[in-house]
Amino acid sequence: MSDQETNFHFLERFDKRVAQLAKQAEEYVHTDPDSCMFKLRLMVETMAKKLTSLQMQGDISKDLGAMLGSLERGGIVPRRQADSMHAIRRDGNAAVHGSPTPVPTAMRRLREAYKISGWFCKIVKRGSKVKLDEFIPPHPPDPLTKESEDFHKKIDILEESIEERRIATRESLLMFGPQEDVQEVTRRIKEELVALDNVAAAAGEPTIDADFVALVMAMDLEQIEEDPRHGGDSRQARREAEQQLEQIKKHLADRENEFLEERTFLMKQRDTIC
What is 71-115 written as a DSSP string? Predict the structure, then answer.
């Protein structure tokens, strides 16, 4: 794509580095989808660093995942944008570590990067008006063969399935251990979920983030364990809470590895056929 044809021309007046990375990713999406993901990941990291420098104080982790988490907890990056940025981070990391990126996956992330870019511009320059046109997928340099079209359809179906399972995983909560009173925990969790659902609805968010819910419930667990009726102390309660949160994070990480293995398997099937 030329500068005149790029989807990301509007970025130039807000952040030239972000604009350059976006355009490079766009150029690579068909010919080198791994490089496309490298550029998109670097684009998200550049955005995160700028948002951190503009709106956060204190030492912030240089790790992109931790940085995004801090921005999200600080209320700077909304849930929807954070989900897309994390998706780009995950697939970018996978590409860096040698996992092949299918073209449809790179295109999906490029489309998400386009939406994030419009939001980013409004954040870095308050009061700016950015009206995104419809995203135009870059055309492949050569017409796709029937085999390539069929493969792309399979990848799209897989990606949709992964997104659905990600949402389901976020919504599935790891409950507390068997030592808890089942009826009491069930009652309290129902009350909390109703409250969280109301908060999410008020904020216009259709789903609850599993990490956030885990953290809230872990904090509640700490309070329960400190209750004199349980005979616990704060240090032990904190350890229990941290273990609970780590278990959920591990579960989410394991699920992401499963998704990556499915995608890699499909890529190997294509290579065998071709």
Answer: HHHTTSS-HHHHHHHHHHHHHHHHHHTTPPPPHHHHHHHHHHHHH
DSSP 141-152: SSPPPHHHHHHH
CB atoms within 10 A of CB 206: 11
- For residues 4-32, give the mean pLDDT: 92
Distance separating alpha carbons of residues 270 and 247, to the nearest angstrom: 35
What are the chain's domains? Answer: 9-132 (1.20.120.330), 171-253 (no CATH)
4 has a pLDDT exceeding 80: no
pLDDT category at 110 given cuts 50, 70, 90 is very high
- Backbone phi and psi for residue 62, each to the nearest 5 degrees, phi listed first: -80, -15
